[in-house]
Amino acid sequence: MFFVDTIELEGLGNRHYLAGGRHAAVAVDPPRDIDQVLAAAARRDVRITHVVETHLHNDYVTGGLELARITGAVYLVPAGAHVSFARTPVADGDTVTVEDGLELRAVATPGHTPHHTAYVLAEQGTPVAAFTGGSLLIGTVGRPDLVEPRLTEQLARAQHASAHRLAAELPDETAVLPTHGFGSFCSSAQAEGENTTIGHEKNANTALTTDVDTFVAELLAGLEDVPAYYAHMGPANAEGPAPVDLTPPAVADAAQIAARLAAGEWVVDLRNRVAFAEGHVAGSFNFDADGKIATYLAWMIPWGKPVTLLAESPEQLAAAQRELVRVGIDRPAAAATGSPRQWVPEGAELASFPRSTFAGLAAEDTDGIVVLDVRRDSERAGGHIEGSVHIPVHELHKRLGEVPAGTVWVHCAGGLRAGIAASLLDAAGRDVVAIDDGFDSAAEAGLTVVTG
């Protein structure tokens, strides 16, 4: 009997897999912190004989090279991917035996990237699972615009053809196990559901239910901004990532934190947005450790700029480090744990700002108030507060000068991104109120919501 274990990384919105039989297993698109994969193999008491990549990833740094080195596994990388390290190139139709009765077959599925390859796991010759990477996802496909703008339409058409190839070649009951689609910006849309099969996708996936011209037009029209750090992931994966170092960073005291802020470095407070608003080190930014810290911090920080992390506990710090190495932010310059009173010189005041709701905004006199919407373009198009200013959160740190004068009431869809934005505005010396509320409450509060 075969098994498939899923390693889910909610922060990046990806899934990674360990699949095998009684004695051997293959790791698919492993994350950079490979200890999770090794632990999964130990629980199964299997040896990892093969590590496979569906493509050169754009949204995270792979652990494949290091995992193969440590385990002695064969490292399979699509032949069309240009890399700087030794690997076993794999082409359409190539097969490997995981163990007796269990075989893995490569299927060329260009679209997400030109070299994208899916892998079909067959037991006694019968396909049982398809590891589809960024090709066929749950209800959607991986986005085709991450390689080269001039190739985007061509790759979108290839996505459609690849989805149809998988649907035609595999039995309906074959499990579809994608890497992307669970919140990753590599997906062209959010996955619909948790599990799926080829048969289900034939009825539910837009790539399989619409003609190619309609599919391509709708796919391209729905593409949104690409996280800035993606530009660094592909080259890192092509070069061959270094092993991770998750040892604790150097400890920063209050004087060192102040000095780093004065030097223009980023000091990031990992506590939740409620605690941050109540009291924090002036000039620090708030990226909630329980939110998408890897995505938003990596998206916004100038690449390579030193970052100091402030955490409630060593556990919170360690979890954040793990999230950040996955996107190539390898070593914090320094860190401190505890409470904000410990992070400022004795006698110094903590900074703070108020939080409110859409009902609170509706009750305010609008004179001197700026309503700032930091959601993405597609969210705003679905409805926004009349007269509000729009700057997506990932652009705000570069566009603070565009925020009009006045007290800034900042909102997103639920509160997390508003908390990030409020911390940036507060650090810049602006009077800010963070709206910690769901956007659905805006109209209910009596605010005028318009579309378009």
Description:
The protein is of the alpha/beta class. The chain has 3 domains: 3-239, Ribonuclease Z/Hydroxyacylglutathione hydrolase-like (Metallo-beta-lactamase, Chain A, 4-Layer Sandwich); 254-343, Oxidized Rhodanese, domain 1, CATH 3.40.250.10; 355-450, Rhodanese-like domain (Oxidized Rhodanese, domain 1, 3-Layer(aba) Sandwich). It has helices spanning 35-44, 64-71, 152-169, 198-204, 206-209, 212-221, 230-239, 254-262, 273-278, 293-300, 314-325, 358-362, 377-381, 393-396, 416-427, 440-444; strands at 3-9, 14-20, 24-28, 47-52, 74-78, 88-90, 95-99, 102-108, 117-123, 126-133, 175-178, 266-269, 285-286, 307-311, 334-337, 355-356, 369-373, 384-385, 389-390, 407-411, 432-435, 449-450. The strands form 5 sheets. Strands 1-2-3-4-5-6 form a 6-stranded mixed beta sheet, covered by helices on one side. A 5-stranded mixed beta sheet has the order 7-8-9-10-11, with no helix packed on it. The longest helix has 18 residues, at 152-169. It comes from Streptomyces fragilis. Keywords: Metal-binding. Residues 261-352, 365-451 form the Rhodanese domain. It holds the Pfam family Rhodanese.
